[in-house]
Structure formats: C-alpha cells, structure tokens
Amino acid sequence: MRILVVAAHPDDEVLGCGATMARLALEKNEVYVAIMGEGITSRHEAREDADTAQLRLLHRNAQAAATKIGARDLVLYKLPDNRLDTIPLLDIVKLVENLAKKVKPEIIYTHHPGDLNMDHGIVHRAVLTATRPMLGQCVREIYAFEVPSSTEWSFQSLGPPFRPNVFVDVTRTLETKIAAMACYGTEGREFPHPRSAEALRAIATRWGSVAGCQAAEAFELVRSVRPETNPK
Ligand SMILES: [Zn+2]
C-alpha cells in the first residue's frame, strides 16, 4: 500500500502519526511525507528576518525524522509558516493534487480541521479538495490525526471537536516516534508540555487503554470509499 501523510509544519507529521507511519513502513508499505510549510519563520516579525541557517537545520531534522520513521520520501514545500492564509487556497490544493497524482496513495493522513493552528485547518481543506472522490480517484481513505498542543488547545471552540474512531496499535513503534521527535532537537519541549516525550507516551497509553492495547495513535475517519474488487 502507498500512504501519504500531509502535514502543515515540520514535526506535525511525527506528532500526528509518527508511530503509525513507522508501523506501516515496517509492514512493507510505502510511506510518503509532505510538509507544506517551512516552519519557524512565524516566530519573527517578518518572514525575511528568520535565520536561514536555523531553517536549513530544521529541514535537515525533518529529513532525519523521516528516515528514522522509514519513510520512502519527504517533500518540503516551504510555504510561509503560520501564514498559509496569505496564499490562495487553490495554490495549496494544486500542490497536493500534483503530489497525489505522482504518489497515487490509497490512504492519506492529515490534520484535523478544528485545531488551534490555522495552517492545520487550511491543509485539511486542501487535502479534501485535492482528493475529491471522483471516478478514478485512488485515495480510498482519509484520516485526521491529532497534534498535541494544537488539537486539544482549541478546546473544541474553533471547529469540530476531534472525535477519534480509528485506533492503531503502536506498541512496537511508539519509541521510534519518540526517537523521530528527538531528531527535531529545537522543537522538543520539557514535560508537562504536550510535545514532550513523557506526554507523547502518556497520550499513546491513554489511547491504548481506549483501544485495548499498550499504546495507540488515534485518528478520526474523514472518508472511506470501498471500491469493487472485480469491477466489470
Ligand atoms: Zn503545526
């Protein structure tokens, strides 16, 4: 199977579905990762003020994390961080559309629309638009992941609440996710921050307890289309 993960910022892909990606890769599936935004430039008054060396390091970290996870390929689009609303949605849709044409994924994992971070909602919308279920659409399933420190920090007041109904047992690959997050040295946080290793383990344990396993990642099914196996 070919799986595509579409994230807004470097590290969202690991936070959202790092352990699931690692498991899928271990099970001999092809995992592709696309990160739409460049990351961190929103921390400066003007995008141009950002330290380009720091940005290059972040992108190298993203590559290291993707390698750790076992992803086949990583595409960095480097759109302006936390400023995706300054770009026509259509332009973002076209990027996703072209990538989906190339990769031909059967499954896509992407952001939940109700997150605190606005870029996440835009990426969700772009993915849904780019993969409309018309005749010949290869994408059969789309899942929304949670991003700790963004999904829960909207407090269900900015969009639909995250309602996970699909759980992936990641008992064997949770530590690969933690190691992939460690590749993002600069983005790591101390406990009790939701992105800390302790919190990520706690979240996985909590979803594991919901799903009857030691550790799980939780997803909300956005769309599932089951094609005929032997179309006439
Ligand atoms: Zn993000």
Structural class: alpha/beta
Strands of the biggest beta sheet: in what spatial order?
A: 3-2-1-4-5-7-6
Any idea what the shape is? globular
Number of strands: 7
Subunit organisation of the chains: single chain
Please work out how many helical segments DSSP would assign: 6
H and E string: EHEHEHEHEEHHE
What compounds are bound to the protein? zinc ion
Tally of structural domains: 1
Give the N-terminus to C-terminus distance in angstroms. Answer: 23 Å
Main β sheet profile: 7 strands, mixed
CATH architecture, by name, is 3-Layer(aba) Sandwich
Q: Into which percentage range does the β-strand content fall?
A: 15-25%
Reported by name, the CATH topology is Rossmann fold
The CATH C-level name is Alpha Beta
Radius of gyration, whole Å: 17 Å
Low-confidence stretches: none
Mean pLDDT: 95
The helix content is: 25-40%
List keywords for this structure.
Rossmann fold; globular; 232 residues; alpha/beta; binds zinc ion; 7-stranded mixed sheet; 7 strands; 6 helices
Descriptive notes:
The chain has 232 residues and is an alpha/beta fold. The chain has one domain (2-224): 3-Layer(aba) Sandwich (Rossmann fold), CATH 3.40.50. Helices cover 37% and strands 19% of the residues. The chain is built from six helices and seven strands. A seven-stranded mixed β-sheet has the order 3-2-1-4-5-7-6, sandwiched between helices. β4, α4 and β5 (141-145) form a beta-alpha-beta unit. α1 (12-26) runs parallel beside α2. The protein is globular. 45% of the residues are buried. The mean pLDDT is 95. Zinc ion binds next to loops.
